[in-house]
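Lab notebook page, bench 4
Experiment: in silico fold of construct C2
Operator: M.H.
Input chain length: 272 residues
Purpose: comparison with the prior construct
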Amino acid sequence: MTENNGNDRRRDINGRIDTLGTGTNGVSGRRASNRIGNRHSKQRDEEEEHDQKAVEASLAEEEDDEKEADAAASADEDEDDRDAEAEPVATESDGQVGDDAEFDADEDKETDDEADAELEIRAEDFDNRSSLEVEIDPFVRAYAARRAAEGGDESLDEYIVGSVKGYLAGLLGGEVSSPGTLEREVAVESDQLMGGLLETIAEEDESPADVVITAIAEAYEVPVDEETLVVAGLRDHEALLNGVVANSSNDLGDTSEVVQAAVETRLIEEPA
């Protein structure tokens, strides 16, 4: 082998080595570059993951704050509700309910009033159908009213009707005569002093008896100007009253005289 050939081979080997070295150095450079890129990417991922965790932590903290705020607001509302229950406040709806209740109460009252008025009308109609108007002496009427009030069990109408029933039963049984009504008579006996006093009190056309009658009328509140009276329940006995009038054995001229005679008889016969 010549020296030149040997040099050529060495150059050729060295060139290959250089070429191989250059190729190897290129791969190593790429690997190094890749490692650096990977390191940067991993770092970015770690930074993004850290940022994501920070955001999630912030959101969780905000959610916790909102829950606490909602819980506090709910507690305040509950407390307000308890206060409202403990001390009710009138509202427009309450006023409406009150108005409705008042309207219902007024309507019920009107209904009750109408029912009462209808009952009064019916009672009045019944009284009108069963009542009978008669003429009766005011003093007899006043005396009968006083007796009824003293007994406490009868009204004036009931006292008169009871008198008529007893009188008619007595007439039918022959236990009571029918003398007619009494003539009013007042006899005053007095000494000269009292007689003179009565004459002084009496008006020009009055007698001492008239003075006594006037005094009695004032004491008993006698309705001297009212000679007619409507008696409830008396019409039921009208037929018998007319029968007594038709009987010629008495001096009673009409039903009013029969009624007055019946009341007078009871006043006289019953103890005061």
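Observations: Residues 132-269 form one domain. The chain has a mean pLDDT of 74.
Next step: discuss at group meeting.
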